[in-house]
């Protein structure tokens, strides 16, 4: 595979060191970029300041380097890109695609319970402030998803055809939070567009975000990248391995052992003949190419 226009990225939040689950995602995105002979970028998603840990970004960068995963450019930081998010929000407001919301969580809970609207244990916003704040101060900004909005369809390179009715299943979602912080959906779309990201390889838990991000891309006149959502490393409770359910930081006394475990999660053949870390990574790129080709997915498939 060769795509000179390929730009991929790994985008961790600096809430702690990488664990086996985040390494598997990092490895998948790196392998896909190398298999396409494209660029691989590192973005530190540090907009949720309350969850970020001082120094965690440097720890993550060092962990990746220890595993031979070195980005092609200096890492970017979302905390330094607020002016871009503000420009995007202003564009959405001017085009009447975004509106201010004065609802508290209690307001939304009461309105949602009356309509029995809940999804993944999250409240679906019922559109209370679409026609004005009704005397309430503005707390957040939301993207307007009108009820006549058509289903959003896209193709995932691993999961196949996907679709979601964002208006019915999610509702008008937040762009800027009540605490003044930028919402993940807006920040990630703006950054992907600004950095020219052509391919996104990330964990399967984020597949549910894709339709919202495609709607934002369209509203901001940005191209839609090609998506591939990879398997997750699961904890003992059967849920995604995370810091919240006991994920331990990588033991990088043996980086090769960590990479081999990540490779198995991704479905790569064991490379018992690898003599060194660079040798393992080179063989892994070849294995990744075979894995992608065997699934019959084209690197040129784009969302329509």
UniProtKB/TrEMBL annotation:
Presence of keyword Aminoacyl-tRNA synthetase: yes
Domain Glutamyl/glutaminyl-tRNA synthetase class Ib catalytic residues, every copy: 9-249
EC number, as in UniProt: 6.1.1.-
Keywords from the named record: Aminoacyl-tRNA synthetase, ATP-binding, Ligase, Metal-binding, Nucleotide-binding, Protein biosynthesis, Zinc
Gene3D superfamilies in UniProt: HUPs
UniProt-listed Pfam families: tRNA-synt_1c
Annotated residues for binding of Zn(2+): 101, 103, 125, 129
Motif placement: 'HIGH' region: 12-22
Free-text remark on how the cofactor is bound: Binds 1 zinc ion per subunit.
SUPFAM superfamilies, per the entry: Nucleotidylyl transferase
Cofactor: Zn(2+)
Annotated GO CC locations: cytosol
Database matches in InterPro entries: Glu-Q_tRNA(Asp)_Synthase, Glu/Gln-tRNA-synth, Glu/Gln-tRNA-synth_Ib_cat-dom, GluQ/Sye, Rossmann-like_a/b/a_fold
Positions annotated to bind L-glutamate: 9-13, 45, 184, 202
Spans through the membrane: none
Any GO molecular function: glutamate-tRNA ligase activity
Ranges spanned by the short sequence motif 'KMSKS' region, renumbered to the chain: 240-244
A biological process from GO: glutamyl-tRNA aminoacylation
Keyword Zinc among record annotations: yes
Top-level class of the enzyme under EC nomenclature: ligase
Positions contributing to ATP binding: 243
Function (record text): Catalyzes the tRNA-independent activation of glutamate in presence of ATP and the subsequent transfer of glutamate onto a tRNA(Asp). Glutamate is transferred on the 2-amino-5-(4,5-dihydroxy-2-cyclopenten-1-yl) moiety of the queuosine in the wobble position of the QUC anticodon.
Family classification: Belongs to the class-I aminoacyl-tRNA synthetase family. GluQ subfamily.
Protein's recorded name: Glutamyl-Q tRNA(Asp) synthetase
């Amino acid at each position: 595979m060769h795509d000179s226009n390929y730009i991929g990225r790994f985008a961790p939040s600096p809430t702690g060191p990488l664990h086996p689950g985040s390494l598997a995602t990092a490895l998948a995105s790196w392998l896909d970029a190398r298999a396409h002979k494209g660029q691989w970028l590192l973005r530190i998603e540090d907009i949720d300041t309350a969850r970020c840990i001082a120094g965690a970004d440097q720890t993550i960068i060092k962990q990746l380097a220890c595993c031979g995963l070195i980005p092609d450019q200096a890492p970017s930081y979302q905390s330094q890109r607020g002016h871009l998010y503000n420009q995007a929000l202003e564009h959405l407001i001017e085009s009447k695609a975004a509106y201010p919301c004065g609802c508290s969580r209690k307001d939304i809970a009461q309105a949602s319970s009356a309509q029995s609207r809940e999804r993944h244990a999250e409240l679906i916003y019922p559109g209370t402030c679409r026609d004005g704040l009704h005397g309430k101060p503005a707390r957040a900004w939301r993207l307007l998803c009108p009820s006549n909005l058509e289903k959003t369809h896209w193709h995932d390179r691993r999961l196949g055809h996907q679709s979601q009715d964002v208006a019915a299943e999610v509702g008008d979602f937040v762009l800027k939070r009540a605490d003044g912080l930028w919402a993940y959906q807006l920040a990630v779309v703006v950054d992907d567009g600004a950095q020219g990201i052509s391919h996104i390889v990330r964990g399967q838990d984020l597949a549910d975000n894709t339709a919202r991000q495609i709607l934002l891309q369209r509203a901001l006149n940005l191209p839609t990248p090609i998506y591939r959502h990879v398997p997750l490393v699961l904890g003992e409770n059967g849920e995604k391995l995370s810091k919240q359910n006991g994920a331990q930081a990588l033991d990088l006394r043996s980086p090769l052992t960590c990479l081999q475990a990540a490779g198995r999660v991704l479905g790569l053949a064991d490379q018992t003949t690898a003599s060194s870390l660079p040798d393992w990574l080179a063989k892994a790129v070849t294995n990744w190419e075979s894995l992608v080709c065997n699934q019959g997915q084209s690197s040129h498939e784009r969302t329509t």
